[in-house]
Amino acid sequence: MSGARIRFRLNGEEVALEVHPLRRLLDCVRDDLGRTGTKEGCGEGECGACTVLVDGVAVNSCIAPVGQVVGCDVTTIEGTGHGAIQEAFVVEGGAQCGICTPGLILMTRAWLEECERRGEEPSEARARKALAGNLCRCTGYGKVLASALAAHANSRSGRNP
Ligand code: FES
Ligand code: FES
Q: Distance, CA 62 to ligand 2 centroid (Å)?
């Protein structure tokens, strides 16, 4: 594979890689850039474990070629802006083994930001729909949904480090 100079921002920091544009974003983030908080589950775009934000949009990084994020802002679990969501997952028991958790937190962030843009009130039904693509073998989803709604309450009270 021939390489190319790929530049984007990772958690607010400019990064540059000499890699093939079709290399998976997941591999670039984890292996090339050492941000191992992003997890791999299925590797086929089905489970959501590898979710990152690209310009604020939730993306399965296992099926996203890095060439698609040139010039974009990529946010992983190591980034800032989702501290209140992380706290909610800890307090509400939305994380157990943790493999799905970074993806769920970033998907929750994308969902809450979309609710705000649309002027929609977050509800359990909406959370269930928004998080349906993020699979979890441990929690049974009840605590995940409670975490997502608690995150909304946290951000409303101004707690969003
Ligand atoms: S590891 Fe990417 S969707 Fe499952
Ligand atoms: S906490 Fe284990 S898969 Fe979700």
A: 18
